UniProtKB/TrEMBL annotation, chains A, B:
Keywords: ATP-binding, Cytoplasm, Ligase, Nucleotide-binding, Purine biosynthesis. Its EC number is 6.3.5.3. Gene3D superfamilies: Phosphoribosylformylglycinamidine synthase subunit PurS. Part of the phosphoribosylformylglycinamidine synthase complex involved in the purines biosynthetic pathway. Catalyzes the ATP-dependent conversion of formylglycinamide ribonucleotide (FGAR) and glutamine to yield formylglycinamidine ribonucleotide (FGAM) and glutamate. The FGAM synthase complex is composed of three subunits. PurQ produces an ammonia molecule by converting glutamine to glutamate. PurL transfers the ammonia molecule to FGAR to form FGAM in an ATP-dependent manner. This is Phosphoribosylformylglycinamidine synthase subunit PurS. One of its GO terms (molecular function) is phosphoribosylformylglycinamidine synthase activity. It is an enzyme of class 6 (ligase). It catalyses: N(2)-formyl-N(1)-(5-phospho-beta-D-ribosyl)glycinamide + L-glutamine + ATP + H2O = 2-formamido-N(1)-(5-O-phospho-beta-D-ribosyl)acetamidine + L-glutamate + ADP + phosphate + H(+). InterPro entries: PurS, PurS-like_sf.
Amino acid sequence: MIKARVTVTLKNGVLDPQGKAIEHALGGLGFGGVGQVRQGKVFDIELDSTDKAQAEIDLKAMCDKLLANTVIENYSVSFV
Amino acid sequence: MIKARVTVTLKNGVLDPQGKAIEHALGGLGFGGVGQVRQGKVFDIELDSTDKAQAEIDLKAMCDKLLANTVIENYSVSFV
């Protein structure tokens, strides 16, 4: 079994109101020196396979089709 | 400036209906051999500081106070 982690983040330049809200909330809680905050998503996926090369191809296809909106988001695949 | 990545994931045993929905959707799209899927959050945070040790302490405090619900979620801090 392969355990993979897919991280989906907003592309640079795409507005992130959720991140901005967190940024302000952290300031309000007294955390100084906090610059930009951007929020993304992470998916921990288990695959019943042992072929990492094929798994990476499959995971990228999953990102393109379902997990990420590639117009505004980047994704990265890593194995854990 | 320090760039940090905070990853917040559900603890084991906590139900994740969103992950389950993704699991089923991937099956419906024809991706076979997909086991458990768990969804989490990722925060990319910039800090105006150069002291990584202090930054790690601050980031953990941010997680405890705002970013994670430590009753049901784990978090990890890494620097990029």
